[in-house]
Amino acid sequence: MDSLTLVLTFSLVVGGGLYWFVCVLGSAEQKGKHAVKLSGGSIEREDVQENYNKYWSFFRRPKEIERAENVPAFVDTFYNLVTDIYEWGWGQSFHFSPAIPGKSNLESTRKHEEMAVDLIGVEPGQRILDAGCGVGGPMRAIAKHSGCNVVGITINEYQVSRAKAHNKKAGLDRLCEVVCGNFLEMPFEDASFDGAYSIEATCHAPKLEDVYSEIFRVLKPGAMYVSYEWVTTELYRAEDPEHVEVIHGIERGDALPGLRSYSDIAEVAKKVGFEVVKEKDLAKPPSHPWWSRLKMGRIAYWRNHIVVTVLETLGIAPKGTMDVHEMLFKTADYLTRGGETGIFSPMHMILCKKPEKPQES
Fold it and tell me: What is the pTM of this model?
C-alpha cells in the first residue's frame, strides 16, 4: 500500500470516527443539541474560560455565596456554562428520575414529570406555574399530558431562548410560555395560577422560605403545589468527613448555596402558609436507583470528553468547555456516591395546598 493510500485511509477512518462521535452519538436523547454547537450560553465565546474561573472563585469565598443578593448571578453564570452540555449529554429535562425496569431513561423521566402534574389535580385549560423551568423539558411533557397552559420561569436568558425554540418545534408553543426572571421575585399577579410545581429547582434558592412564599403568593386559594427537593437525608452525618466531602462536591458542581435537610422542607412550607398534604422521598425503595444512569454513563463521558477536547482544540467549542465538562463529570461521581450511601436525595417530594381562606394571624 503506497503512502497516498495510507494517508487517504487514515483520513477516512479518523473523519468517519469523528463524524460518528459528534453527529451520531454526540447529541442528547431528544436531539436537543449537537456537540459542534456547544456554547457558553449568553456568555461570549471568548469569555467562557473567564466565567468558569469566576464561578469557581465563589467557592474560594464561601461568604459570598451566603449573601442572598449574589446567588442569582452565581446561578445564572452556572447555567450559561452548562446548559448546552446538559442538553447534549443528558437531554432537555435537567433532573433525575427513578429507573423503571423495561423503560428507557426518556420514558422514566417523562413518567416522573407526569406524576408531578397528576399530584396537583389540575384540569385541561387551567394555568399552572413551572418554577425553575430550565429549557422546558418537563414543561412540554406536562403540557402534553395535562392539556394545561404552563408558564415557566428561569433566571437564565439563554434557557428562555432554548425553551421557546423547543416549544415551537414540538408544536406546544400555544400551551407553553417562558419568562425570564427570578423566582424569588416573580413578575406575576397574586392568585393568578391554578397550580404549580418545581422539579429539582428550588435548591438554588438561598432561602427556601423566599421561593415558597412567592409561589404561595401567586397561587389561587385552594390550589396545589408540588416540589421535588434536593436534600440530605436522615443518614447524613455532619461529623463524617466522607459525607461532608460528597455533599460539598454536589454543592460546588451544581451551583447550590447549601443543601437542606429533608426535615426542614415541611416546616418551611407550613411557615409560609401552606397545608402539607403529603411528603415522601421518591428515591427510597421500592424505587429503583436514580443514579444508575450516571453510573452507566461513564463510558459516554469519556467518549464525550474526547469530542469536547477535539472541538475545543480545533476552536469549534469555546475555550473552557473542557473544564466545564470535567467539572460535571466529577459532580456526577459525587451524586452517585450520595445516592449509593443514601445520604442524598434529589426527589424529596412535598405536596402542599394553599388554604381556601386566609389563615388567621
Answer: 0.90
